[in-house]
Amino acid sequence: MLSSAGRRAFAALARPTLRSDVAFAFRPSPAALRRLLSALAVLEQRDGKLNAGSLSAVTAAKQLGGSVHGFIAGSNIKAVAEEAAKIEGVEKIIAVDNPAYDKGLPENYAPLLVENIKKGGYTHVVAGTTAFGKNVMPRVAALLDSQQISDITAVQDDKTFVRPIYAGNAIATVESTDAVKVITVRGTAFPAAAVGSGSAAVEEGVDPKADSPTEWVSEDLAKSDRPDLATASRVVSGGRGLKSKEDFDRIMLPLADALGAAVGASRAAVDSGYADNSLQVGQTGKVVAPQLYVAVGISGAIQHLAGMKDSKVIAAINKDAEAPIFQVADVGLVGDLFEKVPELTEKLKKAQA
Ligand code: FAD
């Protein structure tokens, strides 16, 4: 690992040097980069299962060019740490076994992560743009006096990153000179790192056992046997056009079943109580990029598009031929959803029979 003096020397070396009107950009060789850069990928786990968003974070961490370690914490962590050790391209897993870290409470988790970042002398810390990442990483950045680089969609080099801004209407390229770069990664922009052939060593991390005033009380989870919205290859989403919760369930759930799809919703549908807010797709909901996205009774507001416009194929059903959703749709059906969707569902079921 690099000392802080070493990191400063490297930063000075890597910075472009301007002489008269000619810029010389010194880039260390890949071998030198591997020695100078080290990334800690934060691995989320829930009930002993690795989160897919964390595996995308590992892929982004690998693209930085240095060594990659994984960090995992929670109770009975041994089994999931051993699973994490099989992630391809990860050299070491730092594991902390303590139930205080099970739910990823930022007040507990951020000081833990910071202690381990400092101990390992990492140049980068990378997590998914998940609820956990959005909750914990800003606090980590503040504790490290770094400016967080949020929701990146590409790594240009070890200090330059691409991220969408203004709900995806502009793309910013940002460069960070912070000693420790704190990064969150858009899961749909990086494939999940493969788990299987890796053989990382598992090492016990430091546990500051911070005396936090915050404790986990309970959670109320919406349970579903359907595919997970964030990672499903097919998503069917309903909007305000569904008119009621009863109609949302009556129209959308059989369509989802016929397609083997996850169910999503617009914010208007969520705010009207038609769907649970964990199903919201968009700027303030989940960002999805499935193979197929079917938008039913959704107008296509910019904030909704921010969460689904990178889907491979977009199909839209709307009675208004001028609805903006048709501008991003590959396939459009203008008509009354209460007629068209049950008809489509029947046809899909027949085709599968
Ligand atoms: P509407 O815009 O009301 O559209 C309903 C559509 O249904 C219409 O196009 C209509 O033609 C069609 N329709 C009605 N009846 C039928 C029928 N019988 N058959 C066929 N079609 C029919 N929105 C999100 O979705 N996700 C977000 O994350 C999000 N974040 C936001 C963040 C901010 C800061 C703000 C300001 C807004 C955000 N919004 C978000 C809200 C967004 O601006 C829109 O209000 C919302 O997306 C509209 O949802 P909708 O398309 O379901 O409803």
| Biggest β-sheet strands, sense, barrel | 7 strands, parallel
Q: Identify the CATH class of the largest domain.
A: Alpha Beta
Beta percentage is 15-25%
Tally of separate helices: 11
The separation of the N and C termini measures 59 Å
Q: Report the principal-axis shape.
A: globular
What level of helicity do the residues show? Answer: 25-40%
Give the total of beta strands.
Answer: 19
Over all CA atoms, what is the radius of gyration?
23 Å
Looking at the overall shape, the CATH architecture of the largest domain is 3-Layer(aba) Sandwich
CATH fold annotation of the largest domain: Rossmann fold
Order of helices and strands: HEEHEEEHEHEHEHEEEEEEEHEHEHEHEH
Indicate the low-confidence ranges by residue numbers.
9-24
Q: Strand order within the widest sheet?
A: 9-13-8-3-6-7-14
